[in-house]
Amino acid sequence: MNTSWIKARQTKYGLYITVYILVVIAVVVGANWLANANNSTYDTTANKRFTLSDATKQTLSGLKNDLTISYFDRPAGIENARATLGRYKDASSKIKLKMIDSEKEPELAAQGIHAGSVLIQYGSKREEPKSLSETEITTAIKRAMTGSVRTACFITGSGEASIADTQNAEGMAYFKSLMEDNAIKTKELSMPTKMDDACTIVVIAGPSVDYAQPQVDMVKKFVEDGGKALIMFAPSIVTKTGGGKGEPALEKMAADWGVTVDNVLLYDERQPVRGKTFLLAGNYGTHAVVKDMGRYATLFPLSRSLNVTAGKGLEKLLDSSDTTHQFDGLKPPFEDHPDKDKKGPFALAAAGTAGKGRVVITGSSEWVSNRVLGSQLGPNNAALALNMVNWLTADESLMTIPAREPEDRRIMLTGRQLTMVAISSVIFLPLMVIVSGFVVWWKRR
């Protein structure tokens, strides 16, 4: 048998080419398989606008079972939504994504599902975000993850801020919306004598009049029997109608739990822009509520100081800066004397256990007001407020850190600078090219 063709040069070259082709095909197939199984991207934008926030990633890390996100739209809309929803799928292996062409399944319209609808299914719970924004989708996921209904009951009737007040800066309509957007129902209780069974958390939002003893006893029993409370004090500033005495009954209840609430008003001599009574807080403790807040400053206007007794169940959450002082007295007009007034830092909030329940106490109620939550530092305060509420209800998996705000990276030029840019680009640069060309020609001629 003639086997000389095996040793021929053409045969060897053909074999080499075949092996090379097979290797290239194997590499391409393997790379595509790895890329499909491990989809990852790198966001080069300065403010990471195409990356999920840390808050969303924390929420997704709390998923125990598979969660399905279904999107219904026309083909063009599906492609636009795939980028946003794909980030969720890439962030967690428990996220399953379904993109459904509404034109191919028109019967869905009869079920109230229209083009652009997003449905989130987690076990037996189903939620429908209002839009494709990260805030809406993550909030819907949080609602689906929450196994039970949580209700925050705001006590009213003693001068507290109202969650229905959308007009005044001191109102708490923003705080109400923040809670409801995160699967927490809200309701007001006007001077209750008995706690509503639906209440998961009791909120006392800066009363200007002290509570009657039966009301204090009701709140104290509710907490010590296993309930939760967020108690926010406010400075008892002297007015024509009175004030200045504080809320002795409520303060005694806090003292029984190890927190003394000073009947003072704090100011910071280094805050002339916002106002000296608007304190910037950034010195956080190690409690679960604030353990991830270290890089984010929060705003505490019109605050009293707290003294937390160690070993009684509560601990400090955050301190004011060391440039904070206490005004001498609560009667306007306030005059600051930094060389004489008592100097900080002072504790502004505390959290811990009281009996069988959990409680958070703050020296300010304005830190969750419409004015603050709608300000530049609003997202930071909102994150802190949600952390407090989620810790109170033992839903630590939903605790978060502030979402990133997009940066304004526009270049602002003066009229003179614009003129210089125009002259440079229209005259100087072309002239430099012409001169360079002339020099080269002159040398070569």
Short description:
This protein is 33% helix and 20% strand. It has 445 residues and is of the alpha/beta class.
Question: What do you see in this structure?
Answer:
This protein has 445 residues and is α/β, with parallel strands linked by helices. Among the domains are: 4-37; 148-398, 3-Layer(aba) Sandwich (Rossmann fold), CATH 3.40.50. The chain has helices at residues 4-7, 9-37, 54-61, 75-91, 134-145, 173-180, 213-224, 248-256, 370-373, 378-392, 415-444; strands spanning 67-73, 95-101, 117-122, 125-127, 150-156, 184-190, 201-205, 228-232, 259-261, 266-268, 278-281, 283-284, 298-301, 306-308, 314-319, 324-326, 347-354, 357-362. The chain has an 8-stranded mixed beta sheet with strand order 6-5-7-8-18-17-15-12. A 4-stranded mixed beta sheet has the order 2-1-3-4, covered by helices on one side. Strands 9-14 form a two-stranded antiparallel ribbon. Strand 1, helix 4 (75-91) and strand 2 (95-101) form a beta-alpha-beta unit. The longest helix has 30 residues, at 415-444. The radius of gyration is 31 Å and the shape is extended. The N and C termini lie far apart (74 Å).
